[in-house]
Amino acid sequence: MVPSLYFVLATCFFSDIGPAMDVVNARKVILCVDDEAVGLSVRKMILESQGYRVLTAESGPDALALFSSETIDLVVLDYAMPGMHGGVVAKQMKTIKPATPILMLSAYVDLPGETLALVDRSVTKGEPPPVLLAAIAHLLDHRELDRGAMPAN
Amino acid sequence: MDKITFQKLLRRAFLVPLVLAMFLAVALIYEVQFLVNSAATVENSDHVIQLAEQIYRTRVDQETGLRAYLLTRDESFLQPYDHGRLEAQTLLPQLRQLISSSPEQQARNTAALQAFTDWSSFADNAIAMARAGQDVDDPGFQLRGKALMDRYRQLRTEFVTSEEQRRNQDLSNSRRTLTFVHASVVVLCFVIGIVLALIERKQLTLLSQAFSSALDTARTRAAEAREQKEWFHTTLKSIGDAVIATNAEGTISFMNPIAEGLTGWTLDEARDKPLADVFRIVSEQTRQTVENPIDKVRRLNRIVGLANHTVLISRNGQEFAIDDSGAPIRDPSGGIAGIVLVFRDITQQRGLEAALQSNERLAVAGRLSASIAHEIHNPLDTVGNVLYLMGQQTRNQPELQKLLETAQREVQRVTQISKNMLSLHRESRTPVFVPISDLLKGVAALIEETIAKGKRQIRIEPGFEGEIEGYPSELRQVFTNVIKNAVEATTDGGIIRISSLATRQDGNSGVLVRVTDNGTGISEEMQARLFSPFASTKQENGSGLGLWVSRSILEKHGGTIQIDSVTDGQARGTTVSIFVPLKATSRRRTENLAMDTAQPRLKGLAETSVHNPSS
Question: Do B389 and A45 touch (CB under 8 A)?
Answer without folding.
Answer: yes
